[in-house]
Amino acid sequence: MGIAERRAREKAGIRQEILDAARELFVKEGYEATSIRKIAHKAEYSPGTIYLYFEDKQAVLEALGDEMFRRLDQRMQAIEQDSWGDPLVRLRRGLRVYIEFGLEHPHHYCLVFMLPPEQLSRPMDPLKLQNAMASFQHLVVMVQSCMQAGSIPVGDPQEISQALWAGAHGITSLLIAKCGFPFIEQGRLIDRVLETLIEGIRNK
Amino acid sequence: MGIAERRAREKAGIRQEILDAARELFVKEGYEATSIRKIAHKAEYSPGTIYLYFEDKQAVLEALGDEMFRRLDQRMQAIEQDSWGDPLVRLRRGLRVYIEFGLEHPHHYCLVFMLPPEQLSRPMDPLKLQNAMASFQHLVVMVQSCMQAGSIPVGDPQEISQALWAGAHGITSLLIAKCGFPFIEQGRLIDRVLETLIEGIRNK
DNA sequence: TGCCCATGGTGAACAGTGTTCATTATTTCA
DNA sequence: TGAAATAATGAACACTGTTCACCATGGGCA
């Protein structure tokens, strides 16, 4: 019964080849410029073949988004589990990592967090949602640690985590999308946002 | 010389007809679904005619974005000039109006604030930038009022205004783009974000 | 009034897009 | 080796933004 396994291995291999080609195009050119035909050409397959391994273009790029989620998840987990020091400092570091991660992978960040609704009209299948939730959950845990340590007032961890996420996402997406706006020095602005958020949840 | 004027009036009229058609499609369907051919058909012109009045599709939709900026500007100005009461309350109301405005016009908000960089690769011509700056400037004035009134510590108004904008933009764009995510009740989340931002700039 | 020219609108055409599907080639199993 | 199943193809469809040779209509002039 080694044949079926080999087939499955090959199938997964080709899928990966397609993803590699797609990623290479995507990180350089972004969503619009990454066409099925270009992906197929780079992976040395015909356009039709892509549809044997992915439902449509959206599915290909969603797979790239998943890769990003997993890497973000790892970084956040690393910070969450570093249990030394003030949990508030850890929380702040987590938010900073989130922002820096987004700025390092702007196209990926747009793909996952900024695509307008008409493009994600399909209601975000539960599996991917679980993935996104996992990444977000690290933030919730860090907020809970702060509450337990008495660094911030006790309250609804979901509420506070979502507010913090909004803040971090806000500066990340603004810096990515509105690069024409005359922002003050980027590092100082990020510092100020983090300062505001942390101070904001400390004093209630 | 009435002829040239009539010609100019007609030209402006047709331009407006095109914009009206584009707006109607855009608010219902969003960026992708609003095609030049659909606009032309709705305005009862041929596709080529659009290009006699606008440089390209991007220019048509940018004009819609300008309309939005002007209306946002009016609302912000109304709040800024209402000089009664605590300036901090006014600032908070301004931020809330910004968020609500975005949620009322999600496609417009995406168009102006969330389009990924590959689509706005042209470096945001200075006139439009001035427009955006005008809207933002109201926020700066409100922050300065707070400083003068002693409601918040004295600091760089640009820095604080940009941080506040990031926060307001964050929750607005998240709620628009990630409508699949299990957010807590929207009103409560917005309140929490505003609370966090205001408390954050008060204490430092 | 009759003519000419310039302006404005047209719609076919170009190069590209995502997606589908009948046809072909390859591989597996009897 | 022959039959059946599977995989890959690339042409075709319906769309996209954009350009441009063509034509008609209206204004100025003799």
Provide structural commentary.
- Two copies of one chain form a homodimer.
- Chain A is mostly helical.
- Helix content of chain A is 76%, strand content 0%.
- Chain A has nine helices and no strands.
- The longest helix of chain A is centred in the N-terminal third of the chain and has 28 residues, at 2-29.
- Chain A is elongated and about 60 Å long.
- The model of chain A has no long low-confidence stretch (mean pLDDT 91).
- At the A-B interface, helix 6, helix 7, helix 8 and helix 9 of A face helix 6, helix 7, helix 8 and helix 9 of B.
- The structure holds a DNA duplex (30 and 30 nucleotides).
Write out key terms for the chains shown.
homodimer; 204 residues; mainly alpha; Arc Repressor Mutant, subunit A; Tetracycline Repressor, domain 2; DNA-binding
